[in-house]
Amino acid sequence: MSTSKEPVYCLCGQPYDPERFMIQCDVCKDWFHGSAGWVAAELS
């Protein structure tokens, strides 16, 4: 188990990675990786 204090995002619980496409939900304002939200970066 990680003891990092970095905030986590998405359903996967991973920290922010500037190399990965992320999208913010208009309803809950949480951030999700495009692959978890089933959205391709090219379509956003």
Question: Outline of this structure?
Answer:
With 44 residues, the protein is mainly β. It contains no helices and four strands.
By DSSP (H or I, 4+ residues per run), the number of helices equals 0
**Would you identify the CATH architecture?**
2-Layer Sandwich
What is the third-level CATH name, the topology? Herpes Virus-1
CATH class: Alpha Beta
Distance between the termini: 33 Å
Explain this structure to me?
The chain is an all-beta fold and 44 residues long. It has one domain: Herpes Virus-1 (2-Layer Sandwich), CATH 3.30.40.10. Helix content is 0%, strand content 23%. The chain contains no helices and four strands. A hairpin with a 6-residue loop joins strand 3 and strand 4. It starts with 7 loop residues before the first strand and ends in an 11-residue tail after the last strand.
Provide tags for this entry.
44 residues; mainly beta; Herpes Virus-1; two-stranded antiparallel sheet; globular
Which helices and strands appear, and what pairs or packs with what?
Layout: E1 8-9, E2 14-15, E3 22-24, E4 31-33
Antiparallel strand pairs: 1-2, 3-4
